[in-house]
Amino acid sequence: MGPYIRTRENPYFDGLLVKGGSLTEESSNSDFGGIYDVQKVSRFRSDIGNSGRKNLDLDISEKPMEPAFGDSISDAILQPFIRASNDSWSNAVRPPASVLSDIQSESNFHLDNPSDPMKDSLDHYAPSLLGTEKSYKVMKKRTSLPKIPLPQSAASFYNGYSPRMEIVESCESVNRLNFFLKSRREEVDAGVPGRFLHAVIGQDVPDVGSVASAIMYAFYLNETLKNDQFFTVPVINIKRTELNSHAELKWLLDSCQIDQSSLIFIDEIDLSYYDLFGSLKLVLLNGSKLPSKQEALKESVIEIFNCKEGEFAYPWVEKVTVGQECSSCTLIAENFAMTSPQILAGQGFSRLLLAGILLDTGNLSSPDSTTKDKYMATLLLNGAGRFGCNGLYQILRYKLYDVSELRVADILGKDFKKWTRVGKADNSCSRLTVAHVGMSSIGISVEQLLSHGEASTREIKHFLQTEKLRLLMIVSGYYDQQKNFKREILVSTESVEVMKNLLFFFNSNASQLPLKAVHQPDIGEEMKAFEIDKVTSRKTIERLLEQFGGPFNQHRP
After folding, report:
1. What region holds the DHHA2 domain (predicted)?
2. pTM of the entire predicted model
3. 39 vs 355: CA distance, rounded Å
């Protein structure tokens, strides 16, 4: 028996570091961060396990990338190449300029042979054919990893601590998912003629778990439900514009190579129209009741997925899946594992589910985390990539609170609540009879918010006017350099008179909310900053805000 030679099915090891059986200077770890050349890698599944050493043909272009790539996510697509014979590899063929001009799009997949008569039929995904080859993509990093407290891992030995590019496998399962999303988007735009709209929708909470579970469960139902009358589509229960204020969601969808343009958000489809004509069938995720804004559609609910035991608000629903306190992404991954486990092998596909599990369970350390959550996270470990589960969780948590690239309006809208008057108030609040009161929670200090841009104060006032508020309370919670938790508030009002009423209310409730004024220059009389002298929860502030405004009904804008 010949000696064992370990092989890795990854172009980073065989394509970038090795040329002619030896390491090259151009692909050394120290130079990897500055690579600006497109490198082509030929690699096939059938060669894994061969005891003989492989000879790879590398075509390393000397031309730098065109500046047009800029900060786009994908700077190049590494094209797969068809093997010529069992003993030799085909030479790398450079695609024509017409193909290279399209590689900036992350959702486009091109074959290496432009003259292939099958190419036109494969512009859209064909599962039976793409399963025989792999392609890889060089993705330029937008995040500076040293800012994120990543755990030490063996991957740092290979890729360094801050590579500017990362090689990502374009997996078959993500291709199938993108094809599903794109086809559904096109038919929804056409009106879904002659079929029931089978919409999968979650709660109106813009978190990773809700978005991931809506996409993945809709895809699961489409793959397993054999009903030509149902047109299954995921509906993300937030506005598309809200996605801009959630960097963790955008980063995750980008890293999983999900085509965001094919996603359908709640403001892009009129569910009440389909309900009016009796063609709406709803699948409700992560709860027993629809959000208040969609409560009128409750008669269309035919399935509830992942609700608590005993919480059955709609008795006519026959198909109910009780969540057993675990993440909805855990249940969906379990369904895939039982029906088509091979689909979980794709890194992007498994990463989307794994991210939902990690954030729902606090990196599997929450008291609500179950054994099933941990088991499925282990099964989906490939989705974590070189970061590992801890590293992926740290990146998502960092992105969750990172506002460095957001506008002030996006920061305020990230966690925003709004109340509307429905009753009479006492004399001190009589001027708020028809008022709206809003509260934004932020993870940075008031000083950082006001220094976020030259026009921060003006943008805050513009947000107040856009949301038609008479009072906006910005609640800040953060840790200072000594790791002490600080709570601050910034109040913006429509007029000086409203501010005076609010200050009088604060003075009368000083025992519950002890405030110390913090001077902030050039913010005007309609805006005041305070530091809270004791640890106070947002719920306490929210309750006092309701008392100031009288009886309000809370709702999401």
Report:
1. 402-539
2. 0.66
3. 30
